[in-house]
Design goal:
With 267 residues, the protein is mostly helical. Helices cover 78% and strands 0% of the residues. The chain contains 13 helices and no strands. Helix 9 packs antiparallel against helix 10 (176-204). The radius of gyration is 22 Å and the shape is globular. The two termini are 26 Å apart.
């Protein structure tokens, strides 16, 4: 049966709540776009405060993505190739930042990397390094909440990849590093790219953990989402303009992925 016939036979009592759901999702976005100061949009987005927040957001989100890629790919490989009860627990821990309230994540980061934290106290006492309320804290907070997107996407690709190619390369005498570099990475490269884009977009939009762990200091920790929050009290038009910018970035990200995102969640 074709999809069009199936759609035609959908009962009205299912179509109606579906349309209500669509309206529920679309109306806030329509309200945002309808209230946007389109005539002054460029001047608002190019103001000094907006440019500083944009520059900081781009730098920290890119750095957070690099950290996530460097650490997330080995973790995804371990999860995809691992077996046993411990692997299930590891996957649950990786998924935790996706469901954890962002402010709780920020508090957890403080308890780990604060001056009296689990690791932070040694960094401060031994090296005089204080992480909270710095740009480094922004990168850590963004990587913490965004890395699961990359790990899950890459893990799904590894599980669905053809393992016979890796086995054949091993049989022919290739070592593990060569197999990983010449066989595994090219096979999952599209998923790595999709996961990195998702990770970057999530890092760019991170708010709660960043505010709790890094604060909101202009030029140091005030990223675009924090700038939106701060502007709501003093300049509503700028807050809307920055929100439109983040919305456009999100739409562009979804279009670029073309259905590749969350492949790991469907496994």
């Amino acid at each position: 049966m074709s999809r069009s016939r199936t759609a035609q036979r959908m009962p009205w009592y299912l179509v109606l709540p579906a349309l209500v759901a669509v309206a529920f999702l679309v109306l806030p976005l329509a309200g945002l776009l309808g209230q946007a100061p389109w005539g002054d949009l460029w001047s608002l987005l190019t103001s000094e405060e907006a440019l500083v927040a944009l520059r900081l957001s781009l730098v920290t989100s890119v750095l957070a993505t690099i950290v996530a890629v460097a650490l997330g790919i080995p973790l995804a490989l371990l999860m995809a190739r691992g077996r046993g009860f411990g692997n299930a627990w590891m996957r649950a821990l990786v998924m935790l930042p996706l469901v954890l309230p962002p402010v709780v994540g920020g508090v957890a980061l403080l308890m780990a990397f604060g001056r009296r934290g689990l690791v932070g106290q040694w960094l401060y006492d031994w090296f005089g390094v204080q992480i909270p309320f710095t740009t480094t804290a922004v990168v850590i907070a963004e990587a913490f909440v965004a890395m699961p997107f990359l790990v899950i996407t890459v893990e799904g690709a590894l599980r669905s990849s053809d393992g016979r190619l890796e086995q054949a390369a091993t049989t022919l005498g290739a070592n593990r590093w060569t197999v990983f570099r010449r066989i595994t990475l090219p096979l999952i490269a599209p998923s790595i790219a999709a996961g990195a884009v998702l990770c970057w977009a999530r890092a760019l939009g991170e708010f709660g953990a960043t505010l709790t762990f890094a604060g909101s200091f202009p030029g140091v920790t005030r990223t675009l989402p924090l700038a939106v929050y701060s502007a709501l009290d003093v300049d509503r038009s700028q807050a809307i303009a920055l929100s439109v910018l983040l919305l456009l970035v999100s739409v562009a990200m979804l279009v670029s992925l073309r259905g590749r995102f969350f492949t790991g969640l469907r496994r």
